[in-house]
Amino acid sequence: MWLVVVDTTQIQPYIFGSNRLRENVGASYLVDAATRTWAFDAVREAVKDAAPGKTNIEPGNMLRDDAPDARIENGRLNAEVLYAGGGNFVVLFDDENRAKAFQSALSRRVLEEAPGLQLVIAHQEMNWREDVLSKKLNEVFHLLTKQKRKRTWSAPLLGLSVTAACRSTGLPATGLALGIGGEPGYLASDEILAKVAIARPQHGETSEADRRLQKTIPLAAAYRYPADFDDMGATTGEYSHIAVVHADGNNMGQRFREIGKECTTARQNRELVLKLRAYSIKVEDAAKQALKATLDKLVVSIIDENGEKVIVHQLSRNRSIQIKLKKGKNGHYLPFRPIVFGGDDVTFVCDGRLGLSLAIAYMREFEQQTAGLGKDGGNLTACAGVAIIKSHYPFARAYTLAEELTRSAKSYRKKKEIAGSCLDWHFALSGLGGSIKEIRNREYKVGEEDWLTVRPVTLDDNPEQGQHAWPVVWRGIKAFQKEDWVDRRNKIKALRDALREGAEAVKRFRTAFNNTDPLPTVMSEMQDWPLSGWQSHYCGYFDAIELVDWFIPLKGEADATLAT
Predict the structure, then answer these.
(1) What is the pTM of this model?
(2) Domains in the chain, start-ordered, CATH in brackets?
């Protein structure tokens, strides 16, 4: 019997290396297909000449439940898919030749239909009655990691004689990719042509990528998913920013290892298969339901106004934050598009003013949907990073920043031993480089040990460091979005400048602008904040002031879950 594991590598540059949303969307589809649909097809191809030539794959690529005729160890199957999820595909074959046939069929299809995608496959022989499956899985995943590290990267042929370069990859162009929304066609390599073919509607029909997304997260007939960043809700001459949101489940690898520790003998191999498969499916379904519930909350926040569909957050009688949905041929484009989904990690893009509220909504839904799947029957949690950028900011850099912010939130959560979800965000509105740690040391540090920001924050109240909590920031946003602040732009600007200078400058600000009245109370334990803006080396208001013009709460969230 042979155990085979499939994975992909260099995914970040493959999916996020372009500033064209349709290319990112097409790349995500191809990555998912390689470790899911195409892998299922390759399993069927590998056993088609066998007797009995059976697998546990049902129509629609569903995995059959445990039954006497659905087990590889009793000779009723020639191949059994253990699970497909989280970017991995794990399958058992009863014969080495069939395992090799599977690898050959899948590799060929990836080479032909997803140029540029790097596939990594590892396999190892096992004896079902003697070997412990959990140990074998660890060995094969370790072998997979070694193959990734030792992999010799192929150098693409950069063209002979006179060639034209692809606009997205710089590789030799092999064709012309058709533009959308009035954009002219552009020179493209095989890799880009494959991505665009998946993401671009053909003959007026829905694209393959949209059909996959609609099947997973269906939309009402009045709405469409955007295929271009300019369809996200940008307002010409006024506002053109998007948010890249990356969310990842906490301690998922640990949960799978814990399941493995429950089955430590060869006699428990079948039990392990069932537990891994069931857990993988439940987590994937929960993440999809969380994303769907987040989308539903966004749609509920849309209103009709003078024949237009808009999302409005009224700040005062004179000011509001408004997103006007762009109208296409078959409906209005939502200012939201999932790019990577189908597992516990999710990446989506949206209008910049919705980045934080959608990230928070997703994490809360993820917690609810995974009830019973966590340690000791609790729920699972997640961490998220939100990078708010100009719409034509290098997208690969934006995703890297969102991922780094997620790691920042995870690192804080681990360091402080926090049980719940955590969040971090950053406005990348200039070309300043460096890691998020370097940026904050340069831009958010006052003196030797004082910080303008309280990020990262916990999603709910923080038991370890009370100021590092989203409810604290949210109370500040609500206070500064009230009429007596939001309609006085000079007042807010003066406070922001005073906070940068320190506590004495804030006291002078209160005398000049606030009639010595204290600043809003956002945390009762921090009694110095309303008087000087600072306490215990942290500023209580800078994060909220940054978000005054950028944060739109979803309908029903403003005074409920966002403000717990």
Answers:
(1) 0.91
(2) 2-150 (3.30.70), 175-210 (no CATH), 217-563 (3.30.70.270)
